[in-house]
Specification:
The structure holds 2 protein chains of 2 kinds. Chain A is of the alpha/beta class. Chain A contains 10 helices and 20 strands. Chain A is globular. Chain B is mostly helical. Classes of the chains: A alpha/beta, B mainly alpha.
Chain lengths: ~450, ~260
């Protein structure tokens, strides 16, 4: 990208960062160092955690960083924040840096909410006076007016997070670094956080966001950088980079899919065969998928606008479960039409190990036809699929035939003309009133 | 290195002072918040030491030092400030990894926080020390106005050494234990409860090299003898303490940039 932008707030030019890898038996105490006669103190090897990274972020711009775990996203974020020195190239920022990295840094459970606001605010770069001026705004934003003088240990996790975000949100940064912390609190509060971030952006704050939530990245960011093994894989408009990243996921999934696996049958009797209609590493397998109606009964056909519940049973493969306790899978449910048009797509998370995850769709307003419900489970960073069942579950939607398009949403025509068709008396009256009022405006 | 905001120097000074103030206050509040005695706890330890050593060397093995309680209490307070600062500075970096990894945080403030917190304990105990002086008939001499000068010296010296131990602790996690042993030895090799005069003449040079011993001499000449401290030795100590601080800060900040973040 253009390095000469006048209004660039963050400029990273040809930056590289080396980390040392030490011998596993490197002494960590004087005692061991003395016993080993200082052998093994030197690094075994150096490796580049980041290499030849260049980017600029201007005022009011938001850049997303995506990539697999260990690709260097968080390292890059901290380097931009001035934590650690680059081994080559340079990092320059202008203005105050705000960070939403580890929310609640400096918080202590025995101090009251108010005392913690002061500590966290000062750590965040404000003077005491500035914190005092903003105290009301912070507490109001966190919606904790009533408990602010209670010790933090009496707060719920969500309340602590809200307070931490509220402090961070009130430090007026010129540069804001965000690392996967937007999943804070309940939904209304999350929305509030996103609004606040949008407001920062409008006020000219340069924002860098690290997230595994590709939807969020696509929605919020102007540009996205895909980091792969510490290098820029792709840098461009959000839509393009996220699209390419998802395509990369498909390639990686194919690569990891085992050559053979015992055939499994869906409740409808469809055979699931790997590399045919089933893909993924199988570290975590989808054991069963059930589609249920509002009454909880299995269905293969619903009427347009009906409730649909998709239940997914999943379990970890015993051979790969050991040492993989952190697998925290993401799930996707995609409803596609026979011609490949994606009509509905949503993602969710679930706990590790195994269990059940269910998706409830309040109303499925799809046009009459036959659809595929594709179900997948992915790694946390979406780098590849554990298991993906492609076109294995069909769903028939019944309804009025005719018309083009995807949706069969509840609808009604209204008109201001007296010839207008409606079979509702009230509507007729309303239509009549509208007609009368618009007639007055006519010169006739 | 990212250039931080070109703040007005006055704002930056205010900011660093506020940061120090909040972190010290946090330290003290956390330590005493849930205890009935509160800050009085900070006095308990030196008072207990005073009782034990007063009993031992005032009655069991009398050292015959005039104004022994005052002599002893000044030694204990000065030594405690020095040793507890160093011990807590050792873990100042390793216990605050979140802060260290936070963009824009000034890591160099953490050792200042530990030395300042312990300074506050010292200051809180000072009235008791002065009460001792009054009770024992020594009285309060006008030389007492020089006390902050000696305290500033101790602050600089302790802070300089704190930077060293905090830096070592990051690489060698047993620094704190080793330091505990060294400080225990240091306690007996420093004239906390005995007078330098009673040390054999051929070992006196050792005590001249011990900065804390020299510091104690300066404190006691002000507090007990009501005399000006030896200006030459005070000046030498100041020069030495400043060199230690510069060296400690240099090694600390050269590591703080990159290695801390990697090794924590």
């Amino acid at each position: 990208m253009d390095d000469l932008r006048v209004d660039s707030v963050i400029t990273v030019a040809g930056m590289g960062k080396q980390f040392r890898r030490f011998h596993s038996g490197r002494p960590v105490t004087f005692q061991e160092a003395a016993v080993n006669k200082l052998r093994g103190m030197a690094a075994v090897e150096r490796f580049w955690a980041l290499r030849e990274v260049s980017l600029t972020v201007s005022k009011g711009q938001m850049v997303g960083l995506i990539g697999r775990n260990g690709a260097g996203k968080s390292t890059l974020l901290r380097m931009i924040g001035g934590v650690g020195r680059p081994d080559e190239g340079s990092v320059r920022t202008r203005g105050r840096i705000g960070a939403l990295l580890d929310l609640g840094t400096g918080f202590h459970p025995d101090l009251t909410g108010r005392e913690n606001v002061f500590v966290a605010g000062v750590i965040g770069g404000l003077t005491r006076r500035e914190v005092a001026q903003r105290l009301e705004a912070i507490v109001g934003f966190a919606e904790l007016e009533e408990v602010i003088d209670n010790p933090l240990r009496t707060y719920s996790t969500g309340m602590v997070m809200r307070l931490a975000f509220a402090v961070a949100a009130n430090t007026d940064p010129d540069v804001l670094l965000i690392d996967e912390v937007l999943a804070v609190g309940d939904l209304p509060f999350q929305r509030k956080c996103l609004e606040q971030i949008a407001q920062f952006k409008n006020n000219g704050c340069a924002i860098v966001l690290v997230s595994h939530d590709l939807d969020l990245v696509r929605r919020l960011c102007d540009e996205v950088i895909w980091l792969k093994s510490g290098q820029l894989e792709l840098h461009g408009p959000a839509e393009v980079v996220v699209g390419q990243y998802i395509a990369g996921t498909a390639r990686e999934t194919t690569r990891r899919t085992p050559i053979s696996r015992a055939v499994q049958h869906t409740p409808a009797g469809v055979a699931l065969r790997v590399n045919e209609n089933r893909f993924g590493s199988q570290e975590l397998a989808i054991a069963e998928v059930r589609m249920l109606d509002a009454a909880g009964l299995p269905v293969t056909e619903i009427a347009a606008g009906d409730y649909l519940r998709v239940e997914i049973d999943y379990r970890a493969d015993r051979s790969v479960e050991a040492g993989r306790a952190e697998i925290c899978p993401r799930f996707s449910v995609t409803i596609t039409r026979g011609d490949g048009v994606v009509c509905f797509d949503t993602t969710g998370e679930a706990g590790a190990g195994g269990g059940q995850v269910a998706l409830g769709i309040a109303r499925l307003d799809l046009r009459k036809g036959v659809y595929f419900v594709d179900v997948g489970t992915y790694t946390r960073d979406w780098s590849y699929a554990y298991d993906y069942h492609w076109h294995a579950y069909t769903l028939t939607v019944s309804g009025a035939s005719g018309g083009k398009g995807v949706l069969d949403a509840p609808h009604r025509w209204e008109t201001d003309s007296v010839i207008g068709w409606t079979n509702d008396v009230e509507e007729t009256l309303k239509a009549g009133l509208v007609t009368a009022s618009s007639r007055e405006k006519l010169p006739l | 290195m990212s250039s931080r905001m070109a703040m007005w120097p006055t704002r930056k000074v205010t900011y660093l002072f506020d940061l120090l103030r909040e972190l010290v206050a946090r330290d003290l509040k956390i330590r005493y918040k849930r205890s009935a005695l509160g800050l009085a706890w900070s006095l308990l330890n030196p008072l207990a030491q005073l009782l034990v050593f007063g009993f031992l060397f005032g009655m069991v093995l009398p050292l015959n030092i005039p104004n022994f309680p005052l002599f002893l209490f000044s030694g204990v307070l000065v030594w405690n400030w020095f040793s507890t600062s160093l011990l807590s500075a050792a873990t100042a970096i390793t216990d605050n990894r979140e802060l260290i990894k936070r963009p824009g945080f000034h890591a160099a403030i953490l050792p200042v926080v530990t030395v300042t917190s312990n300074l506050i304990h010292f200051v809180l105990a000072l009235p008791i020390l002065l009460a001792f002086a009054l009770i024992s008939g020594v009285g309060l001499s006008p030389v007492l106005v020089l006390l902050p000068l000696v305290m500033a010296l101790q602050f600089i010296l302790t802070l300089g050494l704190s930077y060293f131990v905090a830096t070592f602790q990051v690489t060698f996690r047993d620094t704190q234990y080793l330091l505990g042993v060294i400080l225990m030895l240091g306690f007996y090799l420093t004239p906390v409860f005995y007078a330098v005069a009673s040390v054999p003449a051929h070992l006196q040079w050792l005590y001249r090299l011990n900065p804390v011993a020299q510091l104690l001499v300066a404190y006691r000449s002000i507090l007990i003898y009501g005399k000006m401290p030896d200006w030459l030795s005070l000046l030498a100590l100041y020069v030495m303490a400043c060199l230690v601080l510069i060296g400690g800060y240099a090694i600390f900040s050269s590591r703080a940039g990159s290695r801390f973040v990697e090794e924590l």
